[in-house]
Design goal:
By secondary structure, this protein is mostly beta strands. The chain has three helices and 28 strands. Strand 11 and strand 12 form a beta hairpin.
């Protein structure tokens, strides 16, 4: 494994006596969690202890199609294990004689509970892949910097996947490991630690914090009080992919920085929830031993305002359920009082307009200076990737998503439209971010048809078609077929 990393959204998946930690944050799971009236599913059933009454064929079918591949259930221990794979091959239909596109992912996913109040989840994944042209441009443009007399940028970063190394001709090699645990010492207190990013909001995108970036070690403490209120403190160590020029190891360390998050949520009633948050990037210097200001550890907001180098994003998040099938949601974020330092999101989800279907409409508008700090290395990023929206800042976006399933056969459609004006794709890089601003209209249309072999881990056989149209880049039509355990989001609609 190449790096300790963390890809995903932390969601509550199942209950026994205590919450069970899960790393399954793919949109397939998120769409279910956001459905009005959704209730945490019962603890996954397992085969009866007297398994002699169950044939080997039935046990194999159950574990392959309805449960985890391996399960252990003892008095105070429940353990679940499943392989993680993503085998797919594809082609750019408009690129005659172009190389075969592929993804080759192998790994393992484990989660479980210990006693009554401790749960954990972890995964280890190795990848080799060859991407399309527009994906290659994005990956390479976010690579690591080697400062010297002439600054060099090398390798690349895959959204949600991490830093890459070259693999054969035109391919990438990258790996990651995710781990987290949840501890509830008392009913109203939750302590999470690990390296999984948090997704804030009810939308397809988040303008506050999302799973677009790379994994980072963090701790999150949340306390529920007065029945409807909760207050949380989140601390994370982050990096700019800038190699230090002075080092005694084989390679220079990356430039560190830290982030803090304070959030206050209020459940107005059963249908309306609102939240406020302060999200700050803190300097950790650039010496051999680095640490943030001591005020960073204070569990209260606004102390970051005492640090002139800090960059802070304030966020408002809300959702409202209307009836039994509709959910509205909004976000408003700002880092200053100018319009260019603000952003907002408006969205709605409609469920079961057709049986077992979901339709989502979402509009995002992000100012051109929302996430940029005065010092480029203090911008709202990690591993050279935006911490919120994968497109960064300075755009308007419309997202239309629809999916429907008939038993285990499913179909999905996703339309993403970007309007870019004076957009600079290198605005948020920690150095060497000067490039000409562009105007562009980008349309990303994706269709997918598949068979969900195992809904528990979203194990699917699928075919996918992507049409990407741009006023600047060549049109691409990407066709893929594959077999994949879809636990995590991998954004390529930038």
């Amino acid at each position: 494994m190449k790096k300790i990393s963390c890809i995903l959204v932390l969601f509550s998946a199942v209950f026994v006596h205590a919450q069970v930690e899960s790393l399954a944050g793919h949109n397939y799971f998120r769409d279910q969690y956001q459905k009005p009236g959704f209730k945490i599913e019962a603890f996954p059933s397992h085969l009866p202890k007297d398994s002699t009454k169950v044939s080997f064929r039935d046990k194999l079918k159950k574990h392959f199609m309805d449960a985890y591949l391996f399960e252990v259930h003892e008095k105070n221990v429940n353990l679940y294990l499943s392989p993680v794979v993503n085998f797919q091959a594809g082609q750019d239909w408009l690129d005659e004689g172009g190389p075969t596109l592929y993804q080759n992912t192998r790994g393992i996913y484990v989660k479980g509970t210990l006693l009554k109040n401790l749960s954990f989840a972890t995964t280890f994944v190795e990848n080799q892949a060859r991407f399309s042209k527009y994906e290659n441009n994005f990956i390479s443009s976010h690579g690591e910097f080697y400062p010297n007399a002439s600054t060099v940028q090398q390798n690349g970063v895959v959204s949600g996947g991490g830093r890459t190394k070259p693999f054969k001709e035109g391919g990438y090699d990258y790996g990651y490991a995710i781990g987290s645990f949840l501890y509830k010492p008392i009913e109203n207190l939750e302590i999470r630690a690990g390296n999984a990013p948090t997704f804030v909001g009810s939308g397809y995108r988040s303008l506050i914090l999302s799973d677009n970036s790379y994994q980072a070690p963090s701790i999150d403490i949340k306390y529920n009080f007065l029945k409807k209120w909760s207050y949380g403190v989140h601390r994370t160590r982050r990096f700019n992919l800038i190699r230090k020029t002075a080092f005694s190891t084989v390679e220079g360390y990356y430039q560190p920085k830290a982030s803090s998050r304070h959030y206050l949520n209020y459940q107005v009633n059963q249908n309306i929830t609102v939240g406020l948050s302060e999200n700050s990037i803190w300097s950790m210097g650039d010496s051999v031993t680095t640490k943030p200001s001591s005020l960073y550890y204070a569990p209260m907001p606004f102390f970051g305002l005492t640090q002139s180098t800090n960059h802070t994003i304030y966020g408002f998040d809300a959702s409202e359920v209307a009836g039994k099938k509709t959910k509205f949601y909004q976000q408003f974020v700002f880092s200053g009082l100018d319009v260019s330092q603000m952003g907002f999101q408006l969205g709605v989800r409609f469920y079961d307009l057709l049986p077992n279907s979901m339709l989502q409409l979402e509009y995002n508008k992000v100012g051109s200076e929302l996430y940029t700090a005065d010092a480029p290395n203090m911008s709202y990023t990690h591993y050279n990737l935006p911490l919120a929206h994968p497109k960064g800042q300075g755009f308007d976006e419309l997202v239309i998503r629809a999916n429907v399933s008939i038993k285990r056969v499913y179909g999905e459609s996703k339309t993403v439209c970007y309007w870019l004006k004076n957009y600079n794709e290198r605005d948020l890089l920690p150095m060497d971010n000067e490039s000409p601003a562009i105007d562009d209209l980008i349309i990303h249309q994706q269709f997918e048809l598949g068979y969900r072999i195992n809904p528990k881990i979203n194990f699917c056989l699928f075919g996918r078609a992507v049409l990407r149209i741009s006023d600047i880049d060549p049109t691409q039509i990407l066709l893929h077929i594959g077999l994949s355990t879809n636990l995590f989001n991998n954004y390529n609609d930038y």
